[in-house]
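Lab meeting notes turned into a lecture example. A postdoc, R.K., suggested we walk through two folding results consecutively so the class can see how the record format repeats. The first protein's sequence and structure tokens come next.
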Amino acid sequence: MLQPESYVDFEVYDADVGNLVGVASATPPNIEFLTQTITGAGIGGSIEAPIIGMVNAMTVTLNFRSVTDSATKLAAPVKHTLDLRVAEQYWETVAVEKQIHADRFVMVVVPKNTSVGQISPATMASVSGEYAVYRYEAYDDGTELWCIDPFNYICRINGVDYSADIRAALGK
């Protein structure tokens, strides 16, 4: 049995140009489904019903140490494909050994804002960028965990495409 222990390290690539993007940290987006509040006769109150395959807007945040070339390039108001590659450490309880899994988070993004942070003596610049996420994929050691793509009505989690029936109903 595998027990996750820690992220060891990560790298971020701009997959459109194959460049390494130097970042200090990344905050991947939440997957949050749209909801509809249901009230009325026969319901003792209200229920928040998640809508299948429909997600709220997603945002990824990248934090840089300074105004790097990569931070500047990612500020351009065009599509960028980010590829976050993570080395994650696991403990294998049966074999009694450590393992490293290669995790990936791939996102098609467009910048929302770039902040140069605070300027003060003997500190890093704390530059950050927020990016609207148009497509979000995650992999654990090569196995797809999810693919969320609202424009193409894709909401695939653990191999199940929850939007397949929606696409079929719409003739897509």
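The second example is placed directly after the first for contrast:
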Amino acid sequence: MDRGMNSRMNHRVLIAVALITFGLAACTTTTSTDTIPTPDNTDLPVDLLHDRGAAQGALEDIEQQVGISPAQVTDITIYPEYMIVEAQDPKVPDHIDSYTWRDGEVSAPEPVHLSGPQEVVDASLYPTTAVNLARLPDTVRAAERELETARPIRIEEALATYLYIGRSTSLDGRVVIRLSITGPRRSGNVETTSNGEILTSTVS
């Protein structure tokens, strides 16, 4: 075999090896793009105060545990991560039990120690439908804005940390929402009606 033919064959072999190598590299690149992890937002924590529908969903979970909807409750306390509801036992009306919702789970009922006449306990009860928790984030953000723009003292970066829903002893027994709001330099409180109308606001 002459040198020319040998050279041409070697050249063809080099081209074939190069094409195979390129093809393997292309396959490897394609495979790597298929294994890139995608973000999973389902692992993000729920904020019961600011996430729309979160508080309403937690309350519905608690009502299932209580065994009646609407449930009769004495108070509802909501933090960003959990909710506590003290509800009347529909089977034993003079019993009040505490339920805690956290991470999608509702605790077993715990007895609430009562004192005073039963009439006073009964007068503190209200149905869960008295407050529309579906629009709670709107009420919370309005309260935060109220204290961010308060004068002569305001709260910078105002953020609601928890709230309490119960009957007022000074406003004809109506159901009110009391919010605790804090910032890096100041704290304060806002009281609203069950519909979110601001009644009072203070900065300390």
